[in-house]
Amino acid sequence: MKIRIVAFGIAKDIIKGKELTMDLDNGNSISAVREQLSSIYPEFSKLSSLRFAVNADYVEDSYELKSGDELVLIPPVSGG
Amino acid sequence: MQDIYITVDKLNSKACTEAVTYPGAGGIVVFVGTVRDQTKGKAVKHLEFEAYEPMALKEMQKIADHATDKWSLHKMVIHHRTGLVEIQEEAVVIACSSAHRKEAFEACQYAIDTLKETVPIWKKEVFEDGEVWVSAHP
Prior knowledge:
Chain A is α+β, with helices and mostly antiparallel strands. Chain A has two helices and five strands; from the N terminus they run βαβαβββ. Chain A has a five-stranded mixed β-sheet. The termini of chain A are far apart. Chain B is an alpha+beta fold. In chain B, strands 1-6-8-2 form a four-stranded mixed β-sheet, with helices on both faces. Chain B has helices spanning 13-20, 53-70, 101-118; strands spanning 4-7, 27-34, 38-39, 42-43, 46-51, 75-81, 83-86, 90-98, 121-127, 130-133. Chain B has one domain (4-128): Molybdopterin biosynthesis MoaE subunit (Aldehyde Oxidoreductase, domain 3, Alpha-Beta Complex).
């Protein structure tokens, strides 16, 4: 499955862009995406945390992506 | 005025205070987060905030709803600024009112602490010689 990934904050700097489309090689779970992303962009493993959101809600690593989901990378937040 | 709001324009803490005022209030607590001119002794030029807006608004609403319910507030208002914010300007305003001060203090403290943990907003410190996404690395 192909998935569209949107990046904010430092995640944008890491992927060098606002978004990317990725072919999921090892299943459709968030943990698979996490692994695949870190192997392409080792910088992700250096962050304090990396969370994911689908359709504007946080999702756990066990979440299975469905086609059409908008996956958003949430690096450590620092509002306020 | 909207209670939960993200804007590139300057915030108005006075208007937020007025928005939570009501006759039954025994106390209003307002937290104003402002841009500091230095971090660990290094001069900051300004900050740049970025938000994943639909989700940030949703998470801010959750905080206000939970706080209002838990501490029986009359009302809570949360405004956050995005884009370039200059030194001394307001980056976030949280105002809440309740019948007694203790509840308002606790609710406001909870709101800013939770906002910093859950709301998808990112802050970049811009220095003379570079820039850093705050809290990105351990």
